Amino acid sequence: MIKFTRDAYLFCIIVGLAIYVAFLILTVLIAFLVRGLKVGRFLKSRKFLLGVACGILVFPCLLVLIWWMYSFCSFHSTVNKLKTCDSIEITIYPSAFEACPMLYSYVDSKSLVDDSLFEHPTKLVITNKNIIRSIAHEILKTTYRIGEPGTQAIFMSWTDIFICKNGKVIDGFGILGGNNLVTGRYGTFFSSERLLDKIFRILPQTRPITMRAFCASNLYQLGRSLQFYDDSHNRKYPDPNNWCDILLAESVKYFYDGAAAISVKDFVCQAAGPGKCHYAINPYCTPQSPNDVVLLFETHAGWNQHGGPELMAFDHHEPNGCNVLLNRGKIKFITPDHVADLKWKPREE
Q1: Could you give the 3-state DSSP secondary structure of residue 108?
Q2: How does pLDDT run across 316-329, given as a tens digit for each residue?
Q3: Considering only CA atoms, which of 82, 86, 83 is closest in space to residue 127?
């Protein structure tokens, strides 16, 4: 579905009126040159004034309709080519991993992805028809809002996708900031549904990164809930023996909007398979502990689990590693050979 933003409507109205006024001025000048002063009576007539009023109303609406039709045709033309192409070439710029909505400021992005991805653009060639159709399906089912022409010039294109057939590039589009899809010369489509995240989940080369990022998002939500509990219970975390039950039961109290409270989904790592909860709490961590002490970490399926490094699960992700939430919110992806660097107790040296 394609919608217009309010700014896009205003842009069309202003441009439409400007073009219409310029047209009127040109018409009047030509009339004066052809008919001289006799044209004055016509300019004061009701017919002329009524025509001007109708033009002011109709011309911007016509411009909106033309632009919408162009954008709609340009968008669907690109998607149809994507459905029938032989392959796609994807260039992912380093800024995609740094600013993609799935990698928030609370996550140590460089621990979630390979450092090389931050140094040079990553180029992927996809020839699998099922993967290409899945990308086309995700693009089609997302709701877009059309922005002003030229908006794409403000941004750097973080991900470019080129559509190829018979070895030649026949079309392409860009994804800006993880949410904005740009196709054609003037059409910019804005999405609020994390389009780049969805595409990353489909691609085999980027799916492991996305799974780690979504797991980190779960830890962030649980960490927020722990902080709200801390603020409401005299600077202490829940009892480690039933911390999951407590957070679920009381989470709605800690948010201004009940819909933002955690749910059972936040306890499940999508990369870990079935299970009720894939996270454990460090019983030695308190709100007064230093910021580098482990608070939550990934473990195998269970409920109300608590303990130390002996519970860490490293087989949920590729490559092997474990997401860890440090006290006060920072998240890191830890590989087995870096477990010794973690602090589990407040006074641990």
Answers
A1: coil
A2: 998 889 999 999 77
A3: 86
